[in-house]
Design brief:
This protein is mainly α. The chain has 18 helices and five strands.
């Protein structure tokens, strides 16, 4: 990674892209500290810390959600809109046809995603302002909002803050798209990466501030935490790069006076091919009921019962989360890898898997391999969901939530993808120089 960065900065064009990417990420972090006029800074902190899903979303925004700043919604609405469009593309034929129409179809799908992003941002902004301020009935008496700035008009405060938060979410989306277009790597992923890293940095910094001559225990806790974090990251990278290679042999074909084929290739099948999406969906679904009940004051008793029965750490929570992770892992595996299509492509190009007949037997063989790999991938994601917090608890309790389980996978995946993007950029520039 360090060698890749050195080679990247040695090239003028790539260096400009990296600096532009860093500049746009700095703009994102500045927006995470801009307060919204009229809204108290600590409005969302209690609600966010008491809800696992909101805590995850706040970690992705770098703490902006907990502080109620301009970028409180972060990139969340755009991610949700992208997931919705991706799922609808599978089920709606019109969207499926658009996805296969090349660049023009992708532009139309992007515009649809942006429209859905605006709708989701408005809904989430209204939920933040109204529900977390005490509901419609108690909102006027809430001390978290400066009503005098809005002429004591409740509707004006709601409209103003909804517009501000929606505009912030769209600005984050715009920054992500500009990084993807003019910078290096996927802008949306890098924004999430920076948010998680900054949240972790803030937590560690708060821990270090408590160090003094009479109390050096926090220093050893931070060192032990960082050592264990490096070990966990190493294990995740090892599994993330692991893949099953299926060798495909292509028969020789004579066309005119030329001979084609006779070569072999591989089909790489990654153990964690679905990435972090099964974990995100599983956490979102299992946290959704508590999130809804936490914003409705009349459901406080139901929320207490839910936390006792389905709260984080209970055996029912562990069981349900494990089932959801397995379900979404196999669901995403079916979307990303279609054995029938792969088998058909291999057969059309005169290829075959050694010892397996072309056609239906090949599809069955690929499906069996895919199911086995997905099973191991689901077990791996389940272990990642529980083991890191258990390991970190041996060092310190305060830093357990510095890296959420989903956050760890996101950080590793984005770092590896960024390294691949830089290597491809360097290779492209070297080829251009060679051709000149």
């Amino acid at each position: 990674m360090i060698e890749t960065l050195k080679n990247a900065f040695a090239n003028k064009d790539i260096r400009k892209k990296i600096l532009l990417t860093l500049l746009l990420l700095v703009v994102f972090r500045i927006g995470c500290y801009i307060p919204v006029p009229g809204l108290a800074r600590g409005l969302l902190e209690n609600a966010v810390t008491s809800n696992d899903f909101l805590g995850l979303m706040s970690g992705v925004t770098g703490g902006a959600l907990a502080n109620g700043t301009l970028f409180a919604l972060g990139i969340g609405p755009y991610i949700n809109a992208s997931i919705i469009v991706q799922l609808l593309t599978v089920g709606i034929p019109a969207l499926e046809r658009l996805s296969k129409q090349g660049e023009e179809g992708r532009k139309k799908i992007t515009n649809i995603t942006r429209i859905i992003t605006i709708v989701l941002a408005v809904i989430q902004a209204i939920g933040i302002i109204v529900n977390f301020a005490g509901g419609f009935q108690d909102m006027a008496s809430s001390e978290d909002i400066r009503w005098d700035l809005f002429f004591d008009l409740q509707w004006l405060a709601i409209v103003y803050m909804t517009v501000i938060y929606t505009a912030g979410a769209m600005l984050v989306m715009w920054l992500g798209e500009r990084i993807t277009e003019y910078g290096v790597g996927n802008g949306i992923s890098l924004i999430i990466f920076v948010g998680i890293i900054s949240t972790a940095g803030d937590s560690i910094l708060k821990k270090l501030v408590g160090i003094n001559a009479n109390n050096i225990a926090p220093l050893f806790e931070v060192i032990g935490f960082l050592v264990l974090a490096i070990v966990v990251f190493f294990c995740i990278v090892f599994v993330d790069l692991a893949e099953r290679k299926i060798h495909v042999q292509y028969a020789k074909q004579v066309r005119g006076t030329k001979m084609y084929g006779g070569q072999s290739s591989v089909i790489p099948m990654k153990i964690s091919g679905s990435g972090v999406m099964p974990l995100i969906f599983a956490f979102a679904i299992i946290s959704f009921p508590s999130m809804i009940m936490s914003v409705v004051p009349a459901w406080s008793d139901a929320l207490n019962w839910w936390n006792q029965v389905f709260g984080s750490g209970t055996w029912i929570y562990v069981l349900v989360l494990t089932v959801l992770i397995f379900a979404f892992a196999f669901f995403y595996a079916q979307i990303q890898f279609n054995p029938e299509d792969v088998s058909r492509t291999i057969q059309q190009n005169g290829g075959f898997i050694q010892g397996i007949r072309p056609g239906k037997p090949t599809a069955q063989y690929l499906r069996k391999i895919n199911n086995r790999i997905t099973l191991f991938g689901a077990i791996y994601l389940t272990l990642i969901a529980f083991i890191p917090s258990l390991i970190f608890s041996f060092v310190t309790v305060d830093l357990i939530n510095v890296f959420s389980t989903t956050g760890i996978l996101i950080v590793v995946s984005v770092a590896l993808e960024f390294d691949k993007q830089l290597q491809s950029q360097i290779m492209m520039k070297n080829y251009k120089g060679f051709l000149k």
